[in-house]
Fold:
Amino acid sequence: MKYLLVCAMLLSCAWAQTKYSNIDDSTLVDNGSGTGWGSCVGCAGGNNNAVIASSPFQNPPSVDGGSRDFYINGAAYSNGLWWYKVGANNNASSFSFDFWLNVNNSIQYAQASEFDVFQFNNVSGVQYMFGTQCDYASGTWDVWNAGGSPAAWVHTAIPCARFAQNVWYHITETFHRDSSNNEYYDNLTIAQYNRQHRLVSLHTYAFNEVFPAGTLPQGWGSNMGVQFQMDIGATGASMQQWVDQVSLTVQ
Structure:
């Protein structure tokens, strides 16, 4: 009886976990259906004088045979944001964002590289935005305080140098929230590989940050997903990066 009870508990835990895999390969478009890729220019502030694009199944570079690229050509301090909505899941409270990242020499023109997980709940009217960015100006990883007045980026003690060109990074970020609408930034793991795809460095950091969630804008529906953003620095430029094996695991 005890054995059956343990098995039942393990199965229950397994059922409660959901993994959205190979998001980068998806060709779904967020056209109001609640799932798929979408994008915008300057929607996170800054200059909107830019054009952006994104395409799946890029090779090279690729880890599994097909990556997705993000491209921006714009004026100084312009930015491009790409999101992928997996659909509503108001019950999820822990999140693991896992992806591979590759940049070219245009990274020298970047002000920041941003990676986010979001969960919108229109029942409770809460917006959980787990925002992270490698801030090249400060040389730190920043996290987003969604409930601040105003909402703002906060420097952490975690260092972040500009990503090296034409090599792959494997990045994993974990977060969770509680029933009191607090957002907890948990851990960050970064593995860097060389051009022969051999591991050259591996670091795990604890964010150790917690902030209140933000208020969901009126008219927004429940949804959940991931985001990538490219910010151009003080000189207008064309920039491109690639992501592969993008996944979001929630429980």
Q: What stands out?
A: Residues 59 and 65 are 6 Å apart (CA to CA). The helical segments are 2-16. DSSP finds one helix and 16 strands in the chain.
